[in-house]
Write a structure and sequence with these properties.
Elements lengths: L37 H4 L39 H4 L4 E3 L2 E3 L14 H17 L16 E5 L5 H9 L4 E6 L12 E5 L13 E7 L8 H11 E12 L15 H16 L10 H9 L2 E11 L7 H17 L1 H10 L4 H17 L5 E10 L3
Parallel strand pairs: 3-4, 3-6, 4-5, 6-7
Antiparallel strand pairs: 1-2, 7-9, 8-9
Helix pairs in contact: 3-8, 5-7, 6-9, 9-10
Bound molecules: S-adenosylmethionine.
The site of S-adenosylmethionine has 22 residues, from helix 3, helix 4 and strand 4.
Length: 377
């Protein structure tokens, strides 16, 4: 673990000394990540590179599917979710949830992307030592639990197995969950940014993971959770940063890994949903505003790649790398397209990023923040 149970972070041990990016821009001075050295502090921050920057770098193998785009970023609808659930949209050959009502979602929901999400679940659970929750749940007393934005439902499946006496519900805007599930688990289509349809004060535990980029108003979301939570029940919010960082300066801002967060930062301005939930401490603030008490948090880092010396971290890092290898495109395609990048530019950028991860010269990690709070009795 890179952090103890109290949330105190420890640095991942660097496997090799800091390196320079092999793919830095031709005309910019190379920079190290923020806070790494006094020399770095004097350099102005690097902005986001234009899409064609990556084409000018060393050529990379990139597949060139020539699927067309039917994406309209302004598309929205007030139609009910049930009437439009199968109204997917295709973007450059990848499947996305169509925008319905308030819902606007940026990761592909096709099989390739869903498999990547399942690998991420394994990776996050491994990093937490197999724990599915950090809120202090009393196993014998949890009667009803819900997982909001359940995705493929993999967390909910595991939770339902671990809490066989509890009735577990997973909700999402996309019907991408399995049909063969434990008898105590069901999935429902529900847009969590609308008023929730659950009975008031009905849940002992409400879980949400990786909803960054999906929520315009976190306080409003947690207020809905507050209404549906039993007095004494818990809300747990588990979020990720959208930036790759390093403690040894290996992830320079000019690298493809260093540019990743900037793509999301820029994209979020167009998209209207924050990707800096972790960096901005939004979970705790919104939980306090919604009325939860006894709020605690746990911060840790997910390494990407087999670079950590610690055996367990190495394993976590390999799964994180695998999730990227499985489908990095599904995470970045819509955002980069929103910024006006062409498909070939995106594919070249992805090739650079994968090469950096595989090279072992970069020691990236992304931050995770789990925050949990109790509804007062
Ligand atoms: C990154 S995935 C995480 C899935 C799951 N929580 C996990 O950690 O494995 C985010 C999920 O949130 C869902 N989502 C996005 N906006 C939503 C909304 N307004 N209401 C319900 N679910 C939403 C997406 O469809 C997607 O399945």
């Amino acid at each position: 673990m890179m952090a103890d149970e109290g949330g105190h972070q420890k640095s991942p041990s660097p496997a090799v000394s800091p390196t320079k990016s092999p793919t830095g821009p031709k005309e910019s001075p190379r920079r190290k990540t923020s806070g790494e050295s006094p020399e770095r502090a004097q350099l102005p921050p690097v902005g986001i590179f234009p899409a064609d920057h990556w084409r000018d770098q060393e050529p990379q193998a990139a597949d060139d599917d020539d699927a067309d785009s039917t994406y309209d970023s302004d598309q929205s609808s007030t139609a009910s979710i049930t009437s439009t659930i199968l109204n997917y949209r295709m973007l450059l050959g990848r499947r996305y949830h169509s925008e319905t009502g308030n819902a606007k979602y940026w990761v592909s929901n096709d099989d390739k992307a869903n498999e990547s999400q399942d690998i991420v679940h394994h990776c996050l659970t491994l990093a937490l030592g197999g724990k599915l929750h950090l809120a202090p749940l009393d196993k014998g007393r949890v009667q009803k639990a819900v997982d909001i934005g359940t995705g493929t439902g993999i967390w909910a499946l595991d939770f339902a197995d671990e809490f066989p006496a509890a009735e577990v519900t997973g909700t999402d805007i996309s019907p991408i969950q399995p049909t063969w599930v434990p008898p105590n688990l069901k999935f429902e289509l529900e847009d969590c940014t609308h008023d929730w349809t659950f009975d008031p004060e009905s849940f002992d535990y409400i879980h949400m993971r990786w909803l960054l980029g999906s929520i315009a108003d976190w306080t409003a979301l947690f207020k809905q959770a507050y209404l549906s939570c039993k007095p004494g029940g818990w809300l747990e919010s588990f979020e990720t940063s959208s930036r790759f960082e390093s403690d040894d300066g290996s992830v320079v801002e000019t690298s493809a890994l260093g540019q990743w967060g900037k793509i999301f930062e820029q994209g979020s301005k167009v998209f209207g949903r924050s990707f800096s939930v972790v960096d901005d401490g939004i979970q705790r603030k919104a939980m306090e505003e919604a009325g939860f008490v006894d709020i605690e948090e746990f911060n840790f880092k997910i390494p990407v790649g087999g670079w950590p010396k610690d055996e367990k971290q190495k394993q976590v890092g390999r799964f994180a790398q695998l999730s990227i290898e499985q489908d990095v495109e599904g995470y970045v395609l819509l955002m980069a397209t929103t910024l006006g990048w062409a498909r070939d530019e995106i594919l070249v950028y992805i090739a650079h990023m994968k090469r950096e991860v595989r090279s072992g010269k970069f020691h990236p990690y992304y931050r995770q923040k789990v925050v949990w709070g109790r509804k007062p009795n």
